[in-house]
Amino acid sequence: MLKEPWKKYRPFPPVELPDRQWPNRVLTRAPIWCSVDLRDGNQALAIPMNVSQKLELFNTLVKIGFKEIEVGFPSASNTEFRFNRRLIEEGRVPEDVWLQVLVQAREDLIERTFESLVGARKVIIHLYNSTSPAQRRVVFGKSKAEIIEIAVRGAQMIKDRLPRLAGTEVRLQYSPESFSATEVEFAKEVSEAVMEVWQPTPERKMILNLPDTVEVAMPNVYADQIEWMCRHIKNRDALIISLHTHNDRNTGTAKTELGLLAGADRVEGTLFGNGERTGNLDIVTVALNLYMHGIDPGLDFSDLNAIVEVYERCTGMIVPPRHPYAGELVFTAFSGSHQDAIRKGLREWAAGGREYWDVPYLTIDPTDIGREYREVIRVNSQSGKGGVAYLLETQFGIELPKDLQREFGPIANDEVDRLGREGSAAELKDMFWREYIERTWPWQLQSFATESLNGTVRCRARLLRDGEPVEIRGEGNGPLAALVHGLVGFGVPRFEIIHYSEHALSEGEEASAIAYIQIRHADGRTRWGAGVDTNIELASVRAVLSALNRS
Ligand code: KIV
Ligand code: ZN
Fold this sequence. Notes:
This protein has 17 helices and 14 strands. It has 551 residues and is α/β, with parallel strands linked by helices. A hairpin with a 2-residue loop joins strand 9 and strand 10 (456-465).
């Protein structure tokens, strides 16, 4: 990199708008959405979609709720032309959906575009030409007046052919391509020249799309450009102002959100931001950002995983694991403190009584978009006891006492560390079983019987000790006290039970219970044990032996 980058690059000049209004506004409703997946998105694929992939993606976009879909550049390739014809001829476009097609200001291309639209119900014809100083100088070698001339000729050619689409509802759209790199005064001039030809009215509006074709400045500058246009262009009420942002500086989402504050009505973009270079605006993110603020986005992402699956299969692109809302790891917490906070927040939410979602680290409820709480926490060697306990409880109904969580957490973390990857819930349960439930050496239960006389319980336990059968008898004020008495009488060093709890594990005839016991030895050491049995008394006896076996 250069030591003196200012010698090669320069800052982008701000827009003169001292009384800008957008910073004081808030968004209160969703814009009109237009998906450009099948055009701008498709155009940027190493292997463009074939017709059947395009059809599948089109159906998915319709299902999501898009009412405006740019289906392609029908004059640019036979595939795009045939795709357009199939949609129209096979009646695949719902009555309320507008088919949008893109075309440059060239007569042959406009001709072919019109051919592709015959018989359609609702169409948006999208004309564009580039307007920035670099495009004027480098690509076209034309003056501002000549650039306006291109736009006006294209607009006129379209206007002249409109009678050919009798019976079709037509809306016209113009984009001064590279708008954000164009002087606002010139963008206004060229747009007004097109408006002069198309004569939009408040009843028959045209779309003026103001693309951030290549990001050249910060989002506040784009917002200023949009507000400037909204305030200075003539007949604003005859226009639908549209945004079309890209991501060269990774701020396409911010640009769109600020552009909406600045007065825009419509947003073009793609699912998950597929598009040229660093991609187009990700409509899923902007829509769910609105949803997160309680605004109905008018698009349905309740099964986001299914949409990701169709998108990845049709485009060959991958949604990165940390992609907002859709990425595989988005609702996953690895750090112990995050896991703990999420667990408490989800509990509070599940208990009811809170009006608004306010769970730490989770911006929205994952289940609203078809993702599951189960995905929220996975355990790795950095996870805390909270994550381990949460998984055992939510996946298997194992409710570890707090202090046992503290004992088992580090044991599980060490084991996960040895695995060298994340541990699944099933693996954690296996670890717990190995550590507590299946501890049958040196003590193992064969049978346990009690009888009660005048408030005293007597027990007879048949056990294996180091594999050898032994019989132990004891008495106390309950079965466990009798067992402890019998074991100590048999020569086991003195110990006492300081915690006992149990709960059912599953329902039905085979219902089993799990008991948790903590013992304290004469020297003050404590140990946890756990036992499972269909009989709760036997589960607790097993738990005592488990604690002894772990001592
Ligand atoms: O990015 C862009 O400027 C475009 C135009 C054709 C609208 O895709
Ligand atoms: Zn674009």
